[in-house]
Amino acid sequence: MFAVVATVVILVGTIVTMFYPMLTPGMHPKLEKLMPYTALQLAGKDIYQREGCNNCHTQTVRPLKTEVMRYGDYSKAGEFTYDRPFLWGSKRTGPDLARIGGKYPDAWHYSHFEKPTKFIAESNMPEYGWLKDSKLDPSDIEAHMKVNSFPYTKDDISALASKTELDALVAYMQAIGTAVEKKPSLATVAVTDEKNPLEGDKKAHELGEQLYKQNCGACHGDDGKGGIGPSLRDNIWLNKDGDIRDGQIYAIIANGTANGMPPFATQLDKNKIWSIVSYIRHEQQKDK
Amino acid sequence: MSDYQYDHQTVKGFIVSSIFWGVVGILVGLWISIQMWKPELNIPPYFTFGRLRVVHTNGLAFGLGIGAIFGISYYIVMRLTKRPLLLPKLARFHLYLFNAAIALAALSLFAGMNQSLEYAELEWPLDIGVVILWVIFAINVFGTIIKRKEEQMYISLWYIIATVIAVAVLYIVNNLAIPAGLTKSYSLYAGVNSANVQWWYGHNAVGFIFTTPILAMFYYFLPKSTGLPIFSHRLSIIAFWSLVFAYLWTGAHHLVYTPLPDWIQTLAIVFTLFLIAPSWGSVVNGYYTVGADWDKMRTNYLTKFFIMGITFYGLQTVQGPTQAIRVVSQLIHYTDWVPGHVHMGTMGWVTMTTAASIYYIIPKIYNTEIYSVKVANTHFWLVLIGQLMFSITMWITGIQQGALWKATNPDGSLKYTFMEGLAKNYPFWQLRSVAGVIFTVGMLFFIYNIYMTIRKGKALATSQA
Fold first, then answer.
1. Residue B185 belongs to what H/E stretch?
2. CB-nearest partner of A83 from B49, B191, B335
3. Are the beta carbons of B48 and A51 separated by less than 8 Å?
């Protein structure tokens, strides 16, 4: 008798806050642009779960101003329809990943998984380069696709045989959060003809060097001669074959580019960005 | 009635097993705390932070927590019903199965078999094992209570019954999944809905593993060890019903500012605030019980364990609801504040109360006294200092993190990159590891004391035989 009463008492809150909502369409939304995971992406998501990435990375941007500035548009309910279960996480030892898809080029991810400290000197993220030593198991992934009822072709599956676990994880990274249109950052700046106000300022040049090494060097090379990103000392940038003005460099750093360079305006204030421009200009002098 | 009827061997077996898994869980905890500031200690594939963290949480929640709950609940049920367990042999099988399941669970988590549901990480074959374990527990608890030789049902039995029912419902519903092979499954629930189900489970697992069975211990062993009757039975009953009613509404406070519908979040926040009342019902009951004779804090070494334990429960149940409020959640959610909060509950309330219960039971079983009150006191002060240092350090760094994430420059841009915020955590994370070492040394004093008491008891039994 007591047990029955206790059960009923326990179930009231359960029904109101858990079972009832489950029956409403509000709990099962889907954005129009949301695509099911491809075989390679699903394999990557499985690896993300296996390695417990969600212990340190969240996948939900809260509708708070600074959070939207840092990561991108806040998370929508309809973005997670194909996640069984959700992978929002509960702790941000590392940054949120809800908008990581398309933020960096693939090459950045490969290199960063291999050695996170190459990009972020003080990072405490473990290295995951060892994932490239394990090949994927196509039949396993096919079974997983079936359970999820995701569409696939025979070719999709056979193509997996030549891929590594790291390939899959990078593919998953690039898929996360891409159902939401990328909005221009809240801090987008226009290209101007403005001259660098810090030109010739030695302090700015020193600060710029330090900031360049922290934020730019891993992609553009510590010497500026390129790597994952293009060289900043080729003929176009040296204005031998082009006409790139200070204001343009400023805007590229602030806004990022469509080719995979992330925007820095939310992380670096005006003074810091101009300092980096100073440093880039200074380095270019060596080639002129 | 001979003592054999009370089947002390099974109780002792669970207690010793839980201590063993506790040591494993604590050492893994120390390891991952150092990985936070020394990433070189990640040894792939089996020993990276992502895999070890779940070994730490599962090892302690299920190995130490549930193991101790099984053993101590059996002890309490037998005493309060004045009869042996209904099926002592089944209880013995329960003990063996428990250890096999925890060992397999640890191995599967090292191997990365992980459902990615917090505190429900185990894959489906192990879930079935857990359900079998729980059914065996339920049969013995309910069977023994139905056939009890004492008409009155003391409040501890109520809490144990509520635990058995609630955990069964929570665990089964949240773990429903479609298997995709022996070691992988996909949840029956997707997206926002799965988040709601998971935190309904996650929060109430805390409620019905770290609260109700521990309150059962508190209500039984506090009067037993002090000789003071519980202050108010009526208060304990009111607190019980309001607690088990309100708890199940509150899971969504873990999902504040996520895409979960607002009304579920708000309802959860409101009920979370209400929960302060029943929680403090038990706190007040504990204080007034010992209030009849505060001298017990000095004269009886166990009293301070229970009083500090219930004090941390009281602090925990005020801090928790505070965190649920939107404006506070904004600042501290996703930061290190949260592990600080959790560890006050687990290291302060749960471990302290459980250890005190074990200090009471083990000498009783062997008809002797504790090996050393001095060692127990050293244990008490070390775990207290370790836990306070841990939690306070994490609260400070959590607030700092939250503030740095929100800080902006006059021109509106963010003041700190994510990495600049993270780098400021390093000294705090190092301090936390030191706190963990102090706590661990305290627990070693506890284990030594229990080991010596058992040795003493065994020697006594042989000399009498």
1. strand B185-187
2. B191
3. yes
**3-state per-residue secondary structure call for B234-272:** HHHHHHHHHHHHHHCCCHHHHHCCCCCCHHHHHHHHHHH
Q: Any chain A CB within 8 A of the CB of B264?
A: yes
Distance of residue B41 Cα from the nearest chain A Cα, in angstroms: 9
Q: State the DSSP string of A43-62.
A: HHHHHHHHTTGGGT------
Residue B32 near residue A56, CB atoms below 8 Å: no
pLDDT tens per residue across span B49-98:
999 999 999 999 999 999 999 999 999 999 999 999 999 999 999 999 99
Query: Are the CB atoms for B37 and B30 separated by under 8 Å?
Result: no
CATH 3.40.50.1820 fits A28-175, yes or no: no
ipTM of the modeled complex: 0.96
Query: Which position has the token pair 């374990």?
Result: B133
Task: Indicate which of B110, B193, B253, B329 best probes the interface with A, i.e. most A CBs within 10 Å of its own CB.
Answer: B193
Go through the domains of chain B in sequence order and give each one's CATH number: 1-188 (1.20.210.10), 218-458 (1.20.210.10)
Asked if A56 and A93 touch (Cβ cutoff 8 Å), the reply is yes
DSSP per-residue string spanning B378-416: HHHHHHHHHHHHHHHHHHHHHHHHHHHHH-B-TTSSBSS
- pTM over 0.90? The answer is yes
Percent of chain B at pLDDT exceeding 90: 95
Nearest to A232 by CA among A165, A282, A266: A282
Euclidean distance between the first and the last CA atom of chain B, given in angstroms as a whole number? 18
**C-alpha–C-alpha distance, residues A117 and A153, integer Å:** 39
A21 touches chain B (CB under 8 A): yes
CA distances from A52 to A153, B115, B185, B317 (A): 29, 9, 15, 29
Q: Is B405 on the interface with A (CB under 8 A)?
A: yes
Residues from chain B contacting residue A140 (CB–CB below 8 Å): 181
Q: Is the distance from CB of B382 to CB of B308 less than 8 angstroms?
A: no
CATH 1.10.760.10 domain range(s) in chain A: 28-175, 202-285
| B175 close to B115: Cβ distance less than 8 angstroms | yes
For A22, other C-beta atoms within 10 Å of its C-beta total 12
Cα–Cα distance for residue pair A72/A119, rounded to 1 Å: 21
**Closest CA relative to residue B70, chosen from B47, B41, B101, B44:** B101
Give the single-character DSSP code of B179.
Answer: E
List of chain B residues with pLDDT < 50: 1-4
Largest CA distance in chain B: 84
B162 vs B176: CA distance, rounded Å: 22
Structure tokens at B108: 């599967």
* Whether domain A202-285 has CATH 1.10.760.10: yes
